[in-house]
Fold these 2 entries.
Entry 1:
Amino acid sequence: MERGARQLLMALPCTVGLILTFSAQPTQTDEDLLSRNLSSLLSFFASDTDNYLQELSGFWSYNDTTDLSKYEDFDHSKFLDRPVDRLDEVVRMTPRPAPLPPPQLPPVEAAASEQEAELDPDEIQLMPNMPTFDNDMVTNITAQLGGTAFLNCRIRQLGERAVSWVRRRDWHILTSGVLTYTNDERFQVVHTDDTDDWNLQIRYVQKRDNGTYECQVATGVGTISHYFNLHVVIPTAYILGSGEYHIGEGSTISLVCIIENSPQPPQYVFWYHNDRMINYDTARGGVTVSTEPGPKTHSRLVVNRATPSDSGNYTCRASNTEQDTIYVFVSKEGDNTAAIQRQETSAAFCSPPMILVYLFCILISS
């Protein structure tokens, strides 16, 4: 009885300390007090509490809390010899679930992908009931700037498979079957039922359309492809002459323009005088334009009874063609001699003997 009362009295200060600690806002001093009270409380409920308290009872007074001098001579090794906290033992004894193995892909799908990667396109076409490309197709196509290009792809034994057109420059799928997968409305697939032709049509051809296009078919065991090269040509115009044309007042201006690199001859060739079209200049009169279409289209401009007001830039231009310009000088009657001298001086300086003399002088001076 006496022993139980003694234990209750020893636990009372610790219990009161815990209640005060949890009811107040903790400070640095309160936290230290809480740590000491918790250690005392845990020690009290340990299996060997009686022996431990008997060792401390003669050294530490639980009621004498204001006397800190005894703390300096306190033997802390008694705490270091205490067993490990029971909470750590509980954590170590708690069983942990075994980790789950990582998921694995079905072996059937992996085998199918490997089989598809191993088959060669040439081997696929040799297999029975597989689609094949017509070897007589034209694979190099030339189209004029602004015109329409047709890439003709012919496939036999297609069955229910879909034909796709791919632009190799950016690997963009343009069409698949009869559907179009680009916002550029210039691209369209042309196919007639019960035929083997799947043709790619490109309208209003531009410079950036130049390149390689792929006609492909997915067979289920691999993809077979046929390639087409589109070459976009840009017609050019140039006016015969050296860039300048000198003539006297009252004479006839005669200029010839040639259109090159034009698979389709232009329907019209237009002439401009200082950015004003003069093909049908009825106000001035005496202006005629004659054009001869062909592989190299020739267009001639004739201006009768030239006056100084006819001087200026003359430009030859056709649809989707790079233009060319020449400058015409029309001199008055008194200035004819000066104009002729300018022409003769220019021709003499550009002659081969004068060029050799000029180069020889440069070598000597250096």
Note: DSSP finds ten helices and 20 strands in the chain.
Entry 2:
Amino acid sequence: MSLIIEEPERFRQFDVVSDHSDHSYLNYWNKPAKSKKGISTTNNNNNANDAKTDGPDWFANPSSGVHKKIIKEWKVLERNLPEDIYVRVYERRIDLLRAAIVGPAGTPYHDGVFVFDVAFPPDYPARPPLVHYRSFGIRINPNLYANGKVCLSLLNTWFGSRNEKWNPGESTMLQILVSIQGLVLNKNPYFNEPGAGLFTGRKTKKSMAYTENTFIYSCMTMVYLLKKPPKNFETFISTHFRDRSTHILSACDAYMNSRAVVGCYGETGSDQVFKVSKNFKVLMKSWYPHMVVVFKGTGASLGSFEQLMVEKKTTSSKGNYSDVKKQQKKEKSSGFWKLIGIVKGFLGVKKVGTEKGIKLNSSSS
């Protein structure tokens, strides 16, 4: 008699769940809001307890237009989600949604997981959904702010032509997720920066520096996600990093030792040598041991990577951010970045401060 071993159930790309307690927009419609005259109001007539159960009346009523539209969005997502996008919706809060997007290969986001919380407005689809990036305080892209703001033309939070803006008759939640995956989490995020494409003299060097920083921030996000995964994605995040840990650590080692362009591990020959900044090597050596520890906690078999962790730990210094800060100071004093500052000011782009002890490269807005 042969022993039958059951495979664990595959994590579904789309599913309806019940626990929405850690959602970023849990009580959004009950928050006090100021009118143009400064009078304090609320976003709905229900009490705070309603937001923790069924949500505002306009979402809970199956016959309402917004309820029908959101259910239609659910069906579109369930049938058409592309690979590496996972969605959870809530049975008692249909106005809320959570999505996890795996970073595309060939980008500095490869193998990372990026989580977004979504809230549909009461007049949806007249207005686009609200989208919050769960950032852990890290600015990982010019369009993804440390405070969670997502800048995207389709959300009407970024400038763009009329056909790039939200269209109540045509735009969908699926389009938003695909846009984030393909347009935001791209190979050269530096060029998402306003005005970055206006100059050509130093753009390659600046883009490479931004890409290096982005991969470091992606690694940091991996560590924070494994330490504090969002509800309903705990199994997915643990399994994903267990399965991808050796590939991620191999990429880190290749980047540190100049065997691959950062973000392009596996796309170039191992006998080639690529230029990598000293700042990147210092920061990567600092975070590598943390990654090994959290990956091991998923049950991953890391073998030689654990010995490599010891080597990285003994060679990394406590003052591992000093070189980055010196470089940033040098860049900020250049005429090029003063001009970029003028362009940003004209476009109304505000600067975001320090995240997690590392200041963003001056190419970030």
Note: The chain has ten helices and seven strands.
